[in-house]
Amino acid sequence: MTDEVAEDVGQDESTEDEAEASLPAAPISPPRGLDDDFEINLNFDADEVTESPAEPMDFDAEVEIDKAMAELHADLESKFGDWFVVHTYAGMENRVKQNIEQRVTSLNMEDYIYETIVPTETVVEMKNGNKKEVTRVFLPGYVLVRMDLTDESWGCIRHTPAVTGFVGNANDPTPLMLDEVESMLRPGIVAKVAASAQGKGKRPVKKIEVQDYQIGDSIMVIEGPFAGVPGTITEINPNTQRLIATVEFMGRDTPVDLTFPQIEKS
Q1: Yes or no: domain 207-266 corresponds to CATH 2.30.30.30
Q2: Label partner for 146 (CA 20 to 30 A): which of 12, 112, 180, 255?
Q3: pLDDT of 181-212, one tens digit each?
Q4: Sequence-ordered alpha helix ranges (H) in 126-260
Q5: How do residues 225-243 score in pLDDT, each as one tens digit?
């Protein structure tokens, strides 16, 4: 009789242990002081545990820019006409663009003059101790025009108010190479990629480097559309890690906004 009772008791304890083992684990409560949105990723196969909500994801800006530039290249190749550079009075670039577009319509030149672009870039400026992101003309005094060059189309552009002429041979200008057009449009593409990343909750990975440069230093541009061109530093902004250098472009001294990694002392 005693043996039977002991056997029954052992069976009951075993059954209780199995029942407890089969119960689902109690939910994990967030530690005190954390928001209700706090979550823990219980993927133990992962290398590390992550918390949510997470910081905006980093992404490789250069990869995204390369993709956008490849799309630009394909788009430019698919279009009719050649690209020419028109010289304007400084500060009149957008007005010239409007004037050209109006003249194209009024003179019925749509079959010869297709597109007018003012190359721009987005930069961070410091004013009165405040940072402000602004979009500005990338090449002051220049406008890009895609067109078929004829006497009539040449006259339409040349006699547009605030246009001083075509860059190069004034009467028989030479069209730009495709890579030259891409270099002029690249800063605008970079700005679009950055804006798209911010809209998706991402942020570009930036490597900050501090270099010892002074205003008046002679430098050589080593990266970007002006690579291989010498210049002179005229402004330095250590807060944004950028500087302004004067370089020679198409026979004119042109101010160019650069980052420290894009230059070296010459």
Answers
A1: yes
A2: 255
A3: 999 999 888 888 887 776 666 655 443 344 46
A4: 151-158, 178-199
A5: 888 889 999 988 766 678 8
